[in-house]
Specification:
Layout lengths: L7 E5 L4 H8 L9 E5 L3 E2 L1 E2 L21 E2 L6 H7 L2 H7 L4 E4 L11 H8 L10 E7 L9 E5 L2 E5 L9 H5 L6 E10 H9 L8 E6 L5 E6 L13 E4 L11 H8 L3 E4 L2 E4 L10 E4 L1 H4 L2 H6 L10 E7 L1 E4 L4 E9 L5 E4 L4 E8 L8
Parallel strand pairs: 1-2, 7-13, 16-17, 17-19, 18-20, 19-21
Antiparallel strand pairs: 3-5, 4-12, 6-10, 7-10, 8-9, 11-12, 14-15
Length: 360
């Protein structure tokens, strides 16, 4: 429509670089420039000794990937500058970059926000950094929020909150917004802050247990925490439609259903849905956590336009043309199996026990 070149840049870790390269090859003939770079790799720390569990600093000498980790998306800025791409885009005349989590299917380049960034007023210069926030619901109580501290706008994550104040942090009455991690940043400001070593972001301590039982600690940073390093940073409250993450198969069911349609490359809510909110969807981990297993259990995506809440647990499959309305709970206990037949309409129903319909 605008006949401009907007490149796509993917930040990978050593875990995802090879798979991403394979996925991007099929876009070789498309009219879009795609770049990728790797973020840093840090050594995991033994929780007991507080020493790195890596035996060497070089990848060639220590190939065990379990001893390394990517240090969170807060590493974007310095890795982006170190890759040379930031300077390249500045030299090409580009001014801003739009950052988002790759699993957020609602994150698109919004021209209204871009126009706000480039429109100087007589009183002030455009902000160097924008964080998109949206209204918090009970499902978002762990999301980071904005606060004003030491004359700066800052991101406050739940990991930084003392235990005695966690319930207060989760209150949707006190903290009404949360960070979508859709971020806009001035390229020259990124280059300047990296050169001046200004990206001293708050550390998030992430304890984990490896498959071998070893307790380790990962020190991570969040991209939104960089808001304090830029001049004139602001938060913009955006519609919920710009936050559509797909982290679990329950999220995948929602976006693959008829709740959404594709319009100009963007997922939009089906206009026939009476409510702007999506249903609460819970799928059992034992049978639905893997994408291949999830897809095998649906002969076709169900009609969910009138659905408020669905919980599915156990060995459950769905036939074609199933319609789910209101609140639907389907529980197959251990050893049981439930096959929802093709064309079934479930409205405000609880299905449990054993149900199999076999072809004759």
């Amino acid at each position: 429509m605008y006949d401009v070149d907007v490149p796509l840049v993917v930040m990978n870790s050593f875990n995802t670089d090879e798979d991403t390269a394979k996925a991007l090859r099929k876009y070789t003939g498309f009219r879009v420039k795609i770049y990728s770079f790797n973020q840093s790799r840090y050594p995991r720390i033994n929780k007991e000794t507080l020493m790195p569990i890596a035996s060497s600093c070089t990848e060639k000498q220590d190939t065990d990937e379990e001893v390394w980790y990517p240090p969170g998306h807060g590493d974007f800025y310095e890795s982006f500058v170190n890759s040379g791409l930031c300077k390249q885009f500045i030299d090409e005349g580009k001014t801003y970059c739009f950052l988002s989590n790759i699993d957020n299917l609602g994150a698109t380049v919004d021209l209204k926000i871009l126009n706000f960034l480039v429109s100087e007023t007589s009183n002030s210069s455009p902000p160097e950094f924008i964080m998109e926030v949206t209204d918090k619901t009970r499902g978002d109580v762990k999301g980071g929020t904005l606060c004003w501290y030491e004359e700066k706008l800052r991101l406050l994550e739940i990991a930084q909150v003392p235990k005695e104040h966690v319930d207060e942090f989760k209150s949707i009455n006190k903290f009404k917004i949360f960070n979508t991690n859709n971020l806009w940043a001035n390229l020259k400001a990124i280059q300047r802050n990296a050169t001046n070593n200004m990206f001293q972001l708050e550390i998030i301590i992430n304890p984990k247990t490896l498959d071998n039982g070893l307790n380790i600690v990962q020190l991570e940073t969040a991209a939104g925490a960089a808001i304090k390093t830029f001049e004139g940073s602001v938060g913009i409250n955006v519609p919920r439609s710009r936050f559509l993450p797909v982290k679990k198969t329950s999220d995948l069911l929602i976006v693959m259903s008829n709740l959404y349609t594709m319009k100009h490359g963007t997922l939009v809510m089906n206009p026939n849905r009476m409510f702007q909110s999506v249903p609460l969807c819970k799928l059992g981990d034992n049978h639905f956590s893997k994408v291949q297993e999830f897809l095998r259990r649906f002969a076709g995506m169900p009609d969910m336009l009138e659905l408020d809440h669905i919980t599915v647990s156990g060995d459950v499959t769905f036939g074609k043309g199933v319609s789910l309305k209101g609140t639907v709970i389907i529980i197959a206990n251990h050893g049981d199996r439930i096959d929802i037949p093709p064309g079934a309409i479930l409205e405000n129903k609880i299905v449990s026990g054993n149900l199999r319909i076999l072809d004759h």
